Amino acid sequence: MSQTAHIPSHRKPRRSASSRALRAGVTGGILTLTVAGTAVSASAAEPTAETTQELPTLTADLALNTVQSADATQQAAFSYQLQDQQEQAAGKAKSEAKKAKKAKTEAERKAKEAKERAERAAAKRAAAAEKAREQRASRTAERTTLSTTSTTSTSSTSGNSSDASSSDASSTPQTEAPSTSTGGGNAATVVNFVKAQVGKAYVSGAMGPSSYDCSGLTSVAFRQVGVTLPRVSQAQSTFGTQVSLSNLQPGDILYWGSAGSAYHVAVYIGDGQFVGAQNSGTGVVQRSMSYDMPTGAVRVL
């Protein structure tokens, strides 16, 4: 028996070993990977096995197309965004233009209405002025007529009085009615009475002694000389003889409004002055005719 028979061998046993080698290549646009595997057994070397796997790869054209596609996509996104902004700006501009047009139309409408109102007002003023001129002309003509009539009537009355005096010289004297006599004394009495009432109150329908209305004052004043006037202004404006405002005498009755439809009366006291119960705010006052020019006048005394 050999002495070395029991001595273990110092040679390391062969272990299975395998190795793989990776080879890569591009063939016809396809990436080719070749994996070579080698396994060696403990006893003998085994033949090498090769495995080939193909993986897709990007060609230069495909990579370029991909880049171009990304650029195109980004450019399209920019275009859409720009178009959207343009559409929004156009819509806003259209809305602003519509508002401006509406405001312009409204302004034109208001200007037209204002112009029409001004024209109507001017027409009314012109009509009122023309009416006032006609009324003044009518009053002037009426006063001239009344003055002429009054003068003629006075001359006729004087002639008749002279004839009557001559006729009465051989007949029984007639009694004179003092209530209708004409004289400075009666007019002075009326004037002094109305002056004494200045400052008293105005009360509608009142006839003294502490308050009057306009026709109440004239009625009571003429009672002082025995003349009974109608109670209201309308009737007093036609009682007696119509006289011109340019031919007034103290004691004449002034009236405002048309004869027969006067709305106010007062007593002329001379020097362009009158006394009348004006209203509840002023009471009985003495005023200049220029303060409130009357329409006409009648002479009772």
Strand content: 15-25%
Q: What is the CATH C level class of the largest domain, in words?
A: Alpha Beta
Number of domains: 3
Assigned CATH superfamily of the largest domain = endopeptidase domain like (from Nostoc punctiforme)
Shape: rod-shaped
Sequence of strands across the biggest β-sheet: 6-11-7-8-9-10
DSSP helical segment count: 4
Q: Provide mean pLDDT, rounded.
A: 75
The name CATH uses for the topology of the largest domain is endopeptidase fold (from Nostoc punctiforme)
SSE order and pairing:
Elements: E1 17-27, E2 30-40, E3 49-55, H1 60-168, H2 184-196, E4 201-202, E5 211-212, H3 214-223, H4 233-236, E6 241-243, E7 253-256, E8 264-270, E9 273-279, E10 283-288, E11 296-299
Parallel strand pairs: 4-5
Antiparallel strand pairs: 1-2, 2-3, 6-11, 7-8, 7-11, 8-9, 9-10
Helix pairs in contact: 2-3
